């Protein structure tokens, strides 16, 4: 039985928050998850791409087969210019398959959150609460209290802010928006050129598109370089979306049947226009009681699918530190009914940030450069994109750089499992085949 007095409050019920629920339950840590929407399973928002680094962790939690059943693997990215001419295909996903044993997979946010939620046993599943918008947090040396807009409040030992870039938990504003993005989902069957696993990009001066097709829907993002970067949050209207399409609706999304951005928009299931914030928060925790994960701690342009995957890895690194802090506190006290001290929690938060920060900064820069490359942000990026990136040797060079970072990603140190994703590149941190104590649950 886990300690009844040590309790974590998770703010945010997206993929990162639900991963935290799994990780804490496996660590025998009590929690409550607060999600402001009516459900954590919503058929809304952009589709997700899970990279091998994310798939591996979710596989350690026993979810790999369920995720494969609702997703499609990606192999090749076709590239077009604004006139629809081919710029050469990108085969980086084959490199990932050779290195780590898996292609990236695209799936809807609905299916990802459904797998994460439905796979929770009844006890932890009942601790996922909806219609709970966090309004304030107060902390002391002994614990933390979270108040919600509906008048309810929850007490615990610490708060994990997993509620996105516009987090109500984090009041630091470190993010800079250089691009704005129109995203939309539309039925894959509107065009014979689309199929599950389809991937294509349209590159050119100041704007690029990126499309991935799943089993039912296709997701397209359009990245437009702003005239001037801003740290100010901008809320766009339906009129702004329509104006955006008037300007860029002619861009081709497919090579053969000439599906245009306007065609896709007119058949959209949903769409949104937003500023793309980039940056890494300086301090991921404070007062020994509040710690950030995912987009609340770092925001990337989504061109490399880094956001969700690195949010999952944040939870892994944080859960490892919390599990170790609780284990050590229990060993010192000689009882399970113990709460780590504020100093011990602060040390765990600091170790978590140190584990993740350097990799996150590098990944953030890589995502920014990838978007700049596709939108021809500099003369060098334009030349490389037009004349160099189609060469396999050039693609291999970039994949090699990314592979060295990916191979160092963490796994849950206290969850035994099978290493199902294997390739020519060994993982630095192997999944443990056995642990001294198995994952436990609580009442």
Strand % is: 15-25%
User: Helical percent range?
Assistant: 25-40%
CATH superfamily of the largest domain: FAD/NAD(P)-binding domain
Number of strands: 19
CATH architecture of the largest domain: 3-Layer(bba) Sandwich
The CATH first-level class of the largest domain comes to Alpha Beta
Q: Helices and strands: which structural class?
A: alpha/beta
Strand line-up across the major sheet: 5-13-14-15-12-16-19
Task: Could you tell me the CATH topology label of the largest domain.
Answer: FAD/NAD(P)-binding domain
Model description:
This protein has 443 residues and is an alpha/beta fold. Helix content is 35%, strand content 22%. It has two domains: 7-48 and 109-174 and 282-406, 3-Layer(bba) Sandwich (FAD/NAD(P)-binding domain), CATH 3.50.50; 176-279, Alpha-Beta Plaits, CATH 3.30.70. It is built from twelve helices and 19 strands. A hairpin with a 3-residue loop joins strand 17 (285-286) and strand 18. The longest helix is centred in the last third of the chain and has 33 residues, at 342-374. The radius of gyration is 22 Å and the shape is globular. Mean pLDDT is 92; it is low at 438-443.
